[in-house]
Amino acid sequence: MTYLALVQNGIAQGLIIGLAALSMTLVFAIARFPNAAAGDMLTFGGYAGLFAFNATGSLLATGLFAIIATALLSLAMYYAVFRRLAGRSSVSLLVASIGIGFMIRAVLGVSFGHGQLVFEIELTRPYIIGGIRVSPLDLKLALSALATLAAAFGILYMSSIGRQMRAVADNSDLARVSGIRSERVMAALWLLVGALTAVAGVMLGMATIVAPEVGWEILLPAFAAAIFGGIGSPIGAVAAGLILGVTQELSTPFVGFTYKIAVSFVVLCTVLVMRPRGLFGKAEAVR
Amino acid sequence: MRGNRRDVLRSLGAGVAFMAMPAVVRAQGADVIRVGALNPITGSGSPYGSGMQKMILAAAEAVNAAGGAGERKIEIIAEDSQTSPQAAVLAAKKLIEINKVSAILGTWSSGVSLAVAPFAENADVLLMHTSGAPALSTMKVNGKGLFFRFHANNERSGAAFAELCKRRKFTRPATMAFNNASGIGNVDGFRKAWEAGGGKVVESVIYEPNQPSYRSELQKILAANPDVIVTGSYLADTMIILREWFQTGQPVAWAIPGWAVTPELIRAIGPTAAEGIMSVDAISNEDDPAFKTFDAIYQKAMGTSGRSNVYAAECWDMVNCLALAIEAAGGPVNADMLKAKIREVANPPGQQVASFAEGKAALKKGKINYEGASSALDFDATGDVTPTFGAWSVESGKLVMKYKFQA
Amino acid sequence: MDAYLAAIVSVTLIHVLLALGLTLQYGFTGLINFGMVGFFAIGAYTSALLALHGVPVVLSVTAAAVVAGVSAWPIGLASLRLRDDYFAIVTLGFAEIVRLALTSEKWLTNGVQGLSRIPPIYEGTGTAAAFIIVAILLAVTAAAIFLIHRVAYSPFGRIIAAIRDNEEAVQAIGKDPARFKIQVLIVGSALAGVAGALSAHYVTYIVPEQFMALTTFYVWVAVIMGGVGRVSGAVVGTAILMFFLEGSRFLGDFLPWISSVHMASIRIGVVGLALVLFTIYRPQGLMGDFTKR
């Protein structure tokens, strides 16, 4: 019974990590660097959503506003910084993304202060389905996450721009030669990444709190999930996020609440040693 | 390129020279008492730090408006401790050596207070803090007696919680503690007092800071079927834990430190979920005149009730105690004199006063006893306050005091 | 006044040691180590624990260097099998695990209560003592600079530069890069361990929560601003960073309308902006750099 509950917790966490990891793996595969600003973009999404929620009280407006705001932020990041660094080493881009993350955090800190805020949603008692307690908020958030993932996958696999993004991920030179305009692809990439992190940020904010550091805390598990799932595999990122989330929670009776945070890394390191391309990644150079 | 580098080195040199200049910002003179404020504006104490700093500044303003202490104005130099011992040490050194403060007020985390203590002691600078660690009252750390703890120490807090649970006839308490010295100190104090009374704690969990969710931790506690959960927690994590608890549907009572059960918390979890939650705090009853003065100013400065930041009330009291001590000394002061005078103005017997202005006037007639916004401020031999505690219960969305007791 | 300046110089020197370690690993060899704070912590706790049990500070700091260096060995093995950005993330994870272990293993580290009353670098108070401490730290830093300099201009140094720029070529001439990478990681981490130990004896109180990833990033900022791949870059970059971080404290005195809360956010924002601008416009840092990246 408790194990089931732990699994539930893990899934709830895992969905958020999975969304963040999905945005991470897309950037890894298409722009070819680890995006350390993802955490702070997530935080930004949470704040944007909270702003809309406090103004309108509508969940739909919250989600839309957060998505649009973060997507625009993301696009601005691309045009202002990442585009200028195109062709440079992934370390340069990583370092620049760290800098951008700091700047986002600074702006949020100055605008909203350092205290933590909450979505004042009414709390509800759980449904009891076949002896298992399920929280309505969990369900709502999970459905939103699934809807977002469906939309994201729809874009990636069924739209023309999605096809182009995947082509660039596979082989950017070939993609350029066959006429795909990399700038359009990049713009689409960053818009999508912004949208995904926005949803993760709002989910996190609704499930817990909105505070300047929350996204940063998710960053490492999200990195771990992206690599574990195999860079460039959207399904892998989400699956890995769920697996890591669940594993982390299931491990608590054995390792305690402090070390459970370390579980994602241990899993990651083991995976990198034994199966470097991750769950679904292509056999590309890990070394 | 070459010239560029030379320019850089040259401006670096100028920069160092600039830093070597004394930081002359306000009129200096013998008619000013410089006091340092070292608060957690950033870092884990940040929910409380800005309020603490603002109240120190406001209290100093009020003292100066009433004519100053001992004919002198109080000047506050404020620094951010960043809730980090390393950063705090640098800030403390700056306050002590450059700004030449006579006292440092408002260090919050035990780590920061412990790190700053030796430097303050060596320089004969008073340290008034709100940290919980018992070590801060020991002879080893507080050998000169220059440190004053304005916050109930862990043992006293814990005993207060035990008393509350006893009165409410709970028999199966469990504890949840934030993984830092203060959180753990609180629940350890509770455990000691509870076991001394012959009881048993059925389960205890320590949880890591800054996690997005505490469901598994909650589950472990709830699995032991406690009738009350005593926490050593802060506002952010308490919010998360209570929200997640309510959504499990399992009934249990909660006894939470007063600094975490604020109107913000009640709003965040909703009055239904908050109904019946108990909190324990050193008394500042809404009817205390000192508290009312403090609360009015706090609301204006911060936009929320003063009840949400007991540390800020403690900081307010720090300035008033210090100012009244200087006023009582009436003349040039040194650390030894100050530490004696502080007890003189804050401890009974004496005319009870609730503000600096009142105290200043009353001092002309005889001994006073400043009763503060955060507690009665009666310091024991080791420099700790011996507060009366109050226990509140949330009823229909409002905090209602239920008991008062001495711990 | 002098004692305060001495304090800033002391803290700067300690961070220079960290930056030197990173320069050796990243600047000279191209290894992206995001786990510096982990070795810093290991060094701090090793030295503090030994000193609290009566070991003289000189010996405990040396032991800290050894322990930190040895603990870099598994990281070294990881570096052989992983490409750059994966390695970066693994080192980041390593530092986090170190912090969690320090928090958890109370029997050893006293957990979140921290270790207090750590024997200082030099017993004594007042300005004279502060200057003696600066002198000691200067000596250690000078020794480290000398060491790194010798390494850089030795045959060893040429090979690690070659590894950074073209690893396959190194393999082609029959040298095994693995050995060199592991050695570099060990030495660089030992330096970080010394920095940690000295820091513990300087502040005299350590607690796990102060060893956060932000320290690692600050060291990276210092190295990037100063100039990757140059010893002078490590020194200049650290000096600039510390000047800015400490100097912004004084801004508050001159500009009282900026609240401290904002100041903290502004500080981190400016650091971020500096990172971005340097990466775009002056990737070689202030002192220039001769790496091909």
Question: What does it look like?
Answer:
The complex is a heterotrimer of chains A (287), B (407) and C (293). Chain A has a two-stranded antiparallel sheet with strand order 1-2. Helices cover 75% and strands 2% of the residues of chain A. Chain A has helices at 2-31, 38-56, 59-82, 90-112, 136-158, 160-170, 172-177, 182-207, 214-229, 234-250, 252-259, 263-274; strands at residues 127-129, 132-134. The mean pLDDT of chain A is 87. In chain A, helix 9 packs across helix 10 and helix 9 packs parallel to helix 12. Chain A has a single domain, classed as Orthogonal Bundle (ABC transporter involved in vitamin B12 uptake, BtuC). With 287 residues, chain A is an all-alpha fold. Chain B starts with a helix and ends with a strand. In chain B, the strands form three sheets. Chain B has a seven-stranded mixed beta sheet, sandwiched between helices. Chain B has a five-stranded parallel beta sheet with strand order 2-1-3-4-5, with helices on both faces. Chain B has helices at residues 2-20, 46-65, 85-98, 110-122, 154-167, 181-196, 215-223, 235-246, 263-274, 289-302, 310-329, 335-346, 356-363; strands at 32-39, 73-80, 103-107, 126-129, 147-149, 173-178, 203-207, 228-232, 253-257, 278-282, 351-353, 368-370, 388-395, 398-406. Chain B has two domains: 32-151 and 286-370, 3-Layer(aba) Sandwich (Rossmann fold); 154-284 and 388-405, Response regulator (Rossmann fold), CATH 3.40.50. Chain B is an alpha/beta fold and 407 residues long. In chain B, 45% of the residues lie in helices and 19% in strands. Chain B has 13 helices and 14 strands. Chain C has 293 residues and is mainly α. Chain C has one domain (2-211). Chain C has twelve helices and two strands; from the N terminus they run αααααβααααβααα. Chain C has a two-stranded antiparallel ribbon with strand order 1-2. In chain C, helix 1 (2-28) packs antiparallel against helix 9. The longest helix of chain C has 27 residues, at 2-28. The radius of gyration of chain C is 19 Å and the shape is globular. The model of chain C has no long low-confidence stretch (mean pLDDT 86). Chains in contact: A-B, A-C, B-C. Chains B and C meet through helix 1, helix 2, strand 2, helix 3 and helix 4 of B and helix 1, strand 2, helix 11 and helix 12 of C.
